[in-house]
Every structure is written in structure tokens, then in C-alpha cells.
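Summary: Need help interpreting a holo structure output

Steps to reproduce:
1. Submit the protein chain below together with the SMILES for glutathione.
2. Request a joint structure prediction with the ligand placed.
3. Inspect the C-alpha cell block that comes back.

Expected: a single structure record containing both the chain and the bound molecule.
Actual: see attached output.

Input attached:
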Amino acid sequence: MRVIFTRWEVILRPVLYSFRRCPYAMRARYVIAFLGIPVHLREVVLKSKPAALLALGGRSSVPQLIDVDGVRYPESLDIIFWALSKCDHKAKFAPLWPKNSVQQNKIKAWIAYNDHTFKYWLDRYKYADRYPEYDEGYYRARGEVFLQRLERRLNKKTFLLGERESLADMAIFPFIRQFAAVNQVWFDASQYPSVKSWLDGFIRSEIFQSVVMVKYPVWQAGQGEVSFPA
Ligand SMILES: N[C@@H](CCC(=O)N[C@@H](CS)C(=O)NCC(=O)O)C(=O)O
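--- attached output ---
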């Protein structure tokens, strides 16, 4: 049987507002790409957000996802769980968010520490000149507390929960990447070999290089949509 799609059916996809370098958007894109959930990606410039995003009202941070039924997912973790709910490839999604509640609580704890404590010190380390109360070395040392925890764990296992990558790894690595990039020479010489090879595995991966970090032109209303993952 020949199936004929109307133009409307062909283009109807959830819309993901994203910003290439944002670690929250990166984690959402990584999971969407990993699970192969099709969306339309709209690259945003934070200083000049598109009217369509502002018109949604409330927060206008990225990433944000609007599903085809109009339901809005305003935070990276909402988007990640939305993507999991759309995936019917069990072998792919099951290790990301195991059914076992102990494992789920571990994932939540890793992400919560990253988002609420590590991110705080990361911002100060990145922009130490904006926070003159302490120097860059102080902020870096506070951030290193998390690197030490990660190192202890990754020294024993390939990923944070064991031998399979889970949402804990996927949600955290973009922030460690940012921490490393503040002073790459320092990071390369630092004593976190397991964190480095774990991070390297993500950064060098095909999915990260060829899908997640592809540069797209800034989206403008009326222009064609970008299919993601391509
Ligand atoms: N908790 C949010 C944080 C997102 C966030 O802070 N995004 C930044 C870019 S990295 C942003 O949009 N900043 C501009 C703004 O908040 O208007 C999430 O998980 O999605």
C-alpha cells in the first residue's frame, strides 16, 4: 500500500529550543539523539531570543520542548524524561533509567549534586573575575570536591552506575566538560585519570561529535525547520 503524507503530517514534530553550548541543552540533545527521537531543533541566541519562545510566557531559558500536542517541557530533565517516554526501544532506554528505585535514587542524587552544588562552583570558577570575594583557585578547589567523588566512583566502574551509561552520566558530563575547558592545561595535568577517560569517551563519541554538537544557523520565524537528530 502506498502511503501519501500531506505536507502538514511530514513536518509535524516536537520543537526543541536549544543553544549549542549550553550544558543543559547539550544533555537534552544527547539523550534525544541517543534514543533517536525526532524533533525540530531551533537554535537560539540567548541575547536575542525568538518571539515564539518569549510568547510562551514564563521562563524562557533553554532547552525547552513543545510537543506536537502543545504540552511544554521547560527544563532539561523534563525533556529527558519526555524523550524516554517516547522511546519504544527497550534495550536502549532501560539502562538509562533502570526500574529499580535504588538505582533511580542514585541517578537523582548524582544529578542533584551536579545541578545544585557543582554548577554553583563551576559558574564562579568560570567567571572568577565577577566573584572577587575569592580567587579562581578557591572556586576550582570547591568544584574539585565533585571531581574527587566522580573519580572514586569511575575508578571502580566504567560509568557512574556500573558498566552501562545511564542518565547520571549523560546529564553530568556536559558540566564536567565545561569545568575542564576553563583551564584545559590544568585539567589535562590534574589527577583525575578516570574522570578524564570517562569524559573523553563522551566527547570523542560519534554521537557527540556528529550529532549533538553540529552547528546550526540561528532559527528565525518563517524559516525551514532543522530535523534533529539529522
Ligand atoms: N534548570 C534549567 C536551566 C537552563 C538554563 O539555565 N539555561 C541557560 C543557558 S545554559 C539559559 O537559558 N539562560 C538564559 C535565561 O535563563 O534566560 C534546565 O535544566 O533546563
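--- end attachment ---

Reviewer comment: The pocket of glutathione is lined by residues 19, 22, 24, 46, 60-63, 75-77 (CB under 6 Å). Residues 152 and 194 are 8 Å apart (CA to CA).
Status: needs-info
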